[in-house]
Predict the 3D structure of the following.
Amino acid sequence: MTLPRLRRSLGSLLIAAACASMATTIHAADTTAAIPVAAPQAQARHAITHEDVWLMKRVGAPVASPDGRWAVFSVVDSAYSSQDQWSDLWIKSLLDDSPARRLTYSKSGEGAVAWSPDSRQLVFVAKRDGDEAGQIYRLDVAAGGEAQRLTSLTLGARMPKWSPDGKQLLFISDIYPGNKTESDVKQSAKERKERKVSARSYETTAPRYFDKWLTDKQVRLFVIDADAAARGDNTARDILSGTQLVTLPGFGGGQGDEGQSLDAVWTPDGKAVVFNAATNRDAAQREAVYSQLYLLPVAGGEAQRLTQDKHSYGSLKFSADGKTLFALSDAQTSGKVYDVKRLASFAWPMSNPAPTILTAKLDRSISRFVLPEGGKRVIFSYEHAGLEKLYSIDAKGGDVREEPSLPTGSINSLSSGGKALVGVWESAINPPEIYALNGKQPKRLTAFNTEKASKIDWQAPEHFWFTTADGHQIHNMLVKPANFDPNKKYPLLTVIHGGAASMWRDQFVLRWNYHLLAKPGYVVLLTDYKGSTGYGEEFSRSIQFDPLKGPGDEVNQGVDEAIKKYPFIDGTKLAAGGASYGGHLANWLQATTTRYKAIVSHAGEMDLIMQWGTSDGGFGRETNAGGPVWSNLPVWRDQSPVMQAGNHEKGTGFTTPILITVGELDYRVPANNALMNFAVQQRLNVPAKLLVFPDENHWILKGENSRFFYSEVEGWLAKYLK
């Protein structure tokens, strides 16, 4: 595949939009509807299939141009084979109803899109022909033409950001220890590739993250002249090189799938960058890692630490007038298992290292925020009771105000530019689409999936609450199968979310899709047990010292309440399942009750001690338990499912048939948990089946593997819920 091509300039796109009534293209997406539509149509609707779920187009987060005229976003044309799957950038006018149009034609896809300050150019990260790692490309949207590669770094480039004058790009890349130049990096990479020894060596920090063994690469900030790079001079400067900060043994950024991030942003004058970094990553197994803010001159010099507390700061944004720096902040070192993220601000230039916490009175964690034109209010979203809506607060603080949002579903991205505010909205029966969010009523701008969704027989989740004995208000969603008849009786499948710092959301999901699980004729129950997010900091913290028993009790009570409330539920035919923390709880339910006819456990832990020692998040598990594994705290053993497996004299223990699934590349809940689980089931002669996916991580992400997983779950439940 050649470089992505732009066949029309913005001017020709406007002409095409004006002529939309006379001609259409196969790349157009209808943009006429203002309200999500997944209601019954004249034609017969069908029960959802795995193909419906998997082949829905995956609409990515939009990025609004600074002038508010355009939004660019990615769309994945899904397929069961990665060879047949495509991902491209699309552009949509925010000034009229002309259809969205494809910008790039590429199989590998693009990410990390950033507009130039004049709204004429885009940069993005892609891995094209000849690229061994993702590189930065520039696309002149106004003039059209081919995208130009701006970087050719051995270890790639990511997260580009334009300087305020549009002349330079700031981005993140990596080096190996001791490297000073790109030639050094290339030589180090060559030496590593040619090594005859395959051993990995570690002296500090966790050796693995999610599905990767970590290497000795070190994160750095680079700056490049955009025009010079386009002419072939793509020599990038490592502006952290030579600073004392990078010599600290615990220096690093936030770890993610693509490497570490320093979450950097240009200062308003373009002379420096502000970024976050940790200096205690080498102590990650014995204390909470937190990221402070630093100021670094682009021309060279030492990094100056700006904040002096032990909070973490991220999502940095400057106000349009350059007088305020906004960030999300949380108290990582509080000693608690969970801390909400609050909106913080600093006067700029920073004279006081202590931030103003704008949302101090809001007992919710801010998911994301933007700074619309005018700068008077900050727009943000947060989770609450299965939904995620828009809110705002005065940029100087005050009361939180709810902004126009759709009554159901979840907003999962936000971007602003000029007068525009755009994002992705979705619900359990409306796959993701781009919406304009700055009017009195959110307006749908794309319709990649609406026609397909309208042909599926599905209903929106029903919400209900109950109160526990200790006063917790517990939120639940109930999902009914296709062709639902309230006069019939249906088995109940309670599905347990992971986290535990998470929440069941009214959204369209690929993994554990509510309606696909309900398809065989089950009612699906989704309970937000103690430890869930979206209900305040104390509710999320209430799981501390009680990782499984309390949440398990609330899941069981959710089943009781659903049976009492809904006469169409057959209380004699119950099943439970979950993944990650939901898998932990599925194992716990198998050990502590015999009420369920079948259990499904994906990526579920068996032994808290083993999980502490082998997963990629040991200290957080220690915080949750209240002390290290050698402290003899009862929770380490009492709330490990394996220690309850043989409690048959109490009428519990492992007896319920269980389907155990795991990805061999899962380092979050390593496969040793699943192997132990299956061994115990075999030892106790419990009906069990073990599925190991050697090419999957914590999630089952490949199309055919996903289809097989759902079919195995369906078959297992059908066998025991007859």
About this structure: The first strand starts at residue 5 and ends at 6. The first helix runs from residue 10 to 18. The radius of gyration is 26 Å.
